[in-house]
UniProtKB/TrEMBL annotation:
Annotated InterPro entries: ANTAR, CheY-like_superfamily, GAF, GAF-like_dom_sf, GAF_ANTAR, WH-like_DNA-bd_sf
Protein name from the UniProt record: GAF and ANTAR domain-containing protein
SMART domains documented for this protein: ANTAR (SM01012), GAF (SM00065)
Entry-linked Gene3D superfamilies: 3.30.450.40, Winged helix-like DNA-binding domain superfamily/Winged helix DNA-binding domain
Domain of life assignment: Bacteria
Domain ANTAR, first and last residues per copy: 173-234
Keywords: Kinase, Transcription, Transcription regulation, Transferase
């Protein structure tokens, strides 16, 4: 299960708050740089929700969630507890109307939770407006950035335009961070398997090919991932 983060909405001195057209390109460039400076997908998510509150007109709170088919929702990063509280209370299909739209559209909005049916959860928390933007989608799950505001009608067409531009940068940065993490993990796994193979070569007096085949057979026999078995061997080289 992905890690979850709560982050405080803070100021970004290099960025104009809610930039207008003349500042938007520069603001998005700086935001993109900050997103790409993160080292992990978790760091990208945490930075993205903070930037969303700073850049998206009308936004007061933001969260990033994964919505799976069957309406299971996990909030991965949020700026304030009110966001986690709002998203954690959704349990039924009828309460997922906002995110259901994102299977077919990149954007979904709530204009006024007190006037729109089915949004009592948001209204009870004082959240009147919401703007959701799709970051990732496949057949099984959505990754969604949602901005919230306490004022009704907070997210107009301009806010949506800025949000879509910003979410495009977030998607690219998140993909880059994910690939970087996977490559790092692959290198660590390769080194770990190499160490385990060397231990087996020394212990059993066999060559590298035979040692690796022995490792694979043991992995299959014990139904243990090759990486995890290699970690056990490296951690206890004299164990049987």
């Amino acid at each position: 299960m992905p890690k979850r983060f709560v982050v405080a909405a803070s100021e970004f001195p290099d960025l104009p708050r809610f930039p207008v057209d003349s500042e938007l390109a520069e603001a998005l460039t700086v935001a993109s740089q900050q997103l790409h400076e993160t080292l992990t997908p978790h760091g990208t998510l945490r930075t993205a929700v903070r930037l969303a509150v700073h850049l998206m007109p009308g936004a007061e709170h933001a969260g990033i969630s994964v919505i799976e088919r069957g309406n299971k929702i996990r909030t991965l990063a949020w700026t304030d507890e009110v966001v986690r509280s709002a998203e954690s209370r959704y349990t039924g299909r009828e309460q997922h109307g906002l995110w259901d739209r994102l299977w077919n559209s990149p954007v979904a909005r709530i204009t006024d939770s007190e006037a729109d049916d089915g949004w009592d959860v948001l209204a009870a928390l004082g959240l009147r407006s919401a703007l959701s933007l799709r970051l990732r989608a496949d057949r099984r799950r959505l990754t969604v950035l949602t901005a919230y505001a306490r004022k009704p009608g907070a997210f107009d067409e301009e806010a949506t335009r800025v949000g879509r531009l910003f979410s495009a940068h977030v998607s690219i940065a998140l993909d880059s961070a994910t690939v970087r993490e996977q490559l790092t993990e692959a290198m660590h796994t390769r080194d770990l398997i190499g160490q385990a193979t060397g231990i087996l070569m020394e212990r059993q007096g066999i060559d590298a090919t035979a040692a690796f085949e022995s490792l694979v057979r043991a992995s299959q026999r014990e139904n243990v991932k090759l990486r995890d078995l290699a970690r056990r061997i490296v951690g206890a080289p004299n164990a049987p």
